[in-house]
Amino acid sequence: MLATFQSEQAIAGQIAGGYTYYLVTHDGQYVGYLALVENADGTTLMISKIYVTKAGRGGGFGRKLLDFAEDVCRERQIPALWLTVNKNNTGSVAWYTRMGFKNAGAIVQDIGAGFVMDDYRMEKTISSHAPGV
Question: Cβ distance 35 to 49 under 8 Å?
Protein backbone atom coordinates (compact mmCIF):
# COMPACT_ATOMS: atom_id res chain seq x y z
CA MET A 1 0.00 0.00 0.00
CA LEU A 2 2.90 2.39 0.73
CA ALA A 3 4.24 1.86 -2.78
CA THR A 4 0.82 2.70 -4.19
CA PHE A 5 0.29 5.94 -2.26
CA GLN A 6 3.57 7.03 -0.64
CA SER A 7 6.37 6.12 -3.03
CA GLU A 8 8.36 8.80 -4.84
CA GLN A 9 6.63 7.79 -8.08
CA ALA A 10 3.17 7.93 -6.47
CA ILE A 11 3.82 11.35 -4.96
CA ALA A 12 5.19 12.69 -8.28
CA GLY A 13 2.01 11.48 -9.99
CA GLN A 14 -0.14 13.12 -7.34
CA ILE A 15 1.71 16.42 -7.73
CA ALA A 16 1.24 16.21 -11.51
CA GLY A 17 -2.47 15.66 -10.82
CA GLY A 18 -2.88 18.79 -8.71
CA TYR A 19 -1.82 17.77 -5.21
CA THR A 20 0.43 20.13 -3.29
CA TYR A 21 2.86 18.77 -0.71
CA TYR A 22 4.30 20.75 2.19
CA LEU A 23 7.18 19.65 4.42
CA VAL A 24 7.63 20.69 8.03
CA THR A 25 11.08 21.07 9.50
CA HIS A 26 12.19 21.64 13.07
CA ASP A 27 15.81 22.14 14.10
CA GLY A 28 16.91 21.20 10.60
CA GLN A 29 15.03 17.88 10.59
CA TYR A 30 11.90 16.88 8.68
CA VAL A 31 9.15 16.24 11.22
CA GLY A 32 6.08 15.97 9.02
CA TYR A 33 4.27 16.66 5.81
CA LEU A 34 0.89 17.61 4.44
CA ALA A 35 -0.71 16.97 1.05
CA LEU A 36 -3.69 19.03 -0.12
CA VAL A 37 -5.87 18.83 -3.21
CA GLU A 38 -8.76 21.07 -4.17
CA ASN A 39 -11.86 19.49 -5.70
CA ALA A 40 -12.75 20.46 -9.26
CA ASP A 41 -15.46 22.97 -8.38
CA GLY A 42 -13.45 24.69 -5.62
CA THR A 43 -15.95 24.01 -2.83
CA THR A 44 -13.74 21.75 -0.72
CA LEU A 45 -10.09 21.15 0.01
CA MET A 46 -9.03 17.61 0.87
CA ILE A 47 -6.24 16.77 3.26
CA SER A 48 -4.89 13.80 1.39
CA LYS A 49 -2.06 13.22 3.84
CA ILE A 50 -1.09 14.64 7.18
CA TYR A 51 1.80 12.99 8.95
CA VAL A 52 4.10 13.82 11.87
CA THR A 53 7.09 11.60 12.68
CA LYS A 54 7.16 9.78 16.00
CA ALA A 55 9.91 12.10 17.18
CA GLY A 56 7.79 15.14 16.25
CA ARG A 57 4.55 14.00 17.88
CA GLY A 58 3.42 16.02 20.84
CA GLY A 59 5.25 19.09 19.54
CA GLY A 60 2.17 20.80 18.09
CA PHE A 61 3.17 20.10 14.49
CA GLY A 62 -0.09 18.34 13.61
CA ARG A 63 -2.04 21.35 14.81
CA LYS A 64 0.22 23.67 12.83
CA LEU A 65 -0.30 21.60 9.68
CA LEU A 66 -4.05 21.70 10.22
CA ASP A 67 -3.98 25.46 10.85
CA PHE A 68 -2.00 25.85 7.63
CA ALA A 69 -4.59 23.83 5.67
CA GLU A 70 -7.34 26.04 7.10
CA ASP A 71 -5.39 29.15 6.06
CA VAL A 72 -5.13 27.74 2.52
CA CYS A 73 -8.93 27.38 2.51
CA ARG A 74 -9.31 31.01 3.59
CA GLU A 75 -6.84 32.26 0.99
CA ARG A 76 -8.63 30.36 -1.78
CA GLN A 77 -12.09 31.13 -0.33
CA ILE A 78 -12.87 27.41 0.03
CA PRO A 79 -15.59 26.88 2.64
CA ALA A 80 -14.83 23.30 3.71
CA LEU A 81 -11.94 21.02 4.54
CA TRP A 82 -12.21 17.24 4.59
CA LEU A 83 -10.21 14.05 4.96
CA THR A 84 -10.64 10.34 5.47
CA VAL A 85 -9.42 8.46 8.52
CA ASN A 86 -9.50 4.74 9.22
CA LYS A 87 -12.41 3.78 11.48
CA ASN A 88 -10.07 1.83 13.75
CA ASN A 89 -7.70 4.76 14.22
CA THR A 90 -9.62 5.96 17.26
CA GLY A 91 -6.87 8.32 18.44
CA SER A 92 -6.87 10.20 15.14
CA VAL A 93 -10.69 10.24 14.93
CA ALA A 94 -10.77 11.76 18.43
CA TRP A 95 -8.07 14.31 17.55
CA TYR A 96 -9.89 15.45 14.40
CA THR A 97 -13.10 15.74 16.41
CA ARG A 98 -11.30 17.94 18.98
CA MET A 99 -10.01 20.03 16.06
CA GLY A 100 -13.60 20.75 14.98
CA PHE A 101 -14.17 18.07 12.35
CA LYS A 102 -17.51 16.27 12.16
CA ASN A 103 -17.97 12.67 11.12
CA ALA A 104 -19.84 12.81 7.79
CA GLY A 105 -20.22 9.05 7.46
CA ALA A 106 -18.48 5.87 6.45
CA ILE A 107 -16.58 5.23 3.24
CA VAL A 108 -15.79 1.65 2.26
CA GLN A 109 -13.88 1.41 -0.99
CA ASP A 110 -11.67 -1.13 -2.73
CA ILE A 111 -8.38 0.65 -3.38
CA GLY A 112 -6.69 -2.22 -5.19
CA ALA A 113 -3.88 -4.66 -4.44
CA GLY A 114 -6.12 -6.47 -1.95
CA PHE A 115 -6.73 -3.39 0.21
CA VAL A 116 -10.09 -2.00 1.25
CA MET A 117 -10.39 1.49 2.67
CA ASP A 118 -12.73 1.37 5.67
CA ASP A 119 -12.77 5.00 6.76
CA TYR A 120 -14.81 7.87 8.06
CA ARG A 121 -15.10 11.06 6.06
CA MET A 122 -14.40 13.93 8.45
CA GLU A 123 -15.43 17.46 7.44
CA LYS A 124 -14.88 20.92 8.84
CA THR A 125 -16.50 24.19 7.81
CA ILE A 126 -13.91 26.94 7.53
CA SER A 127 -14.86 30.46 8.48
CA SER A 128 -13.64 33.25 6.24
CA HIS A 129 -11.65 34.71 9.17
CA ALA A 130 -8.88 33.11 11.21
CA PRO A 131 -9.84 32.27 14.81
CA GLY A 132 -9.62 35.30 17.05
CA VAL A 133 -9.89 37.74 14.13
Answer: yes
Burial of 126 (0-12, 13-18, 19+ CB in 10 A): buried
| pTM as predicted | 0.83
The widest CA-to-CA distance across the chain, in whole angstroms, is 47
Q: What is the pLDDT of residues 88-131, one digit of tens each?
A: 999 999 999 999 999 999 988 887 777 777 899 999 999 876 66
Q: How far, in Å, CA of 77 to CA of 52, rounded? A: 27
91 sits in the region (left: phi over 0; alpha: psi -120 to 50; else beta) called alpha
List CB contacts of 16: < 8 A, sequence separation 6 or more: none
CB atoms within 10 A of CB 13: 11
Please report the domains of the chain, with CATH numbers, ordered by start residue: 16-125 (3.40.630.30)
Given 3-state DSSP classes, what are the helix, strand and coil percentages for the chain, each rounded to the nearest 5?
A: 30, 40, 30
**pLDDT at 37 (0 to 100):** 94
Residue 62: how many other CB atoms lie within 10 Å: 22
**Radius of gyration for the alpha carbons in the chain, expressed in angstroms and rounded:** 15
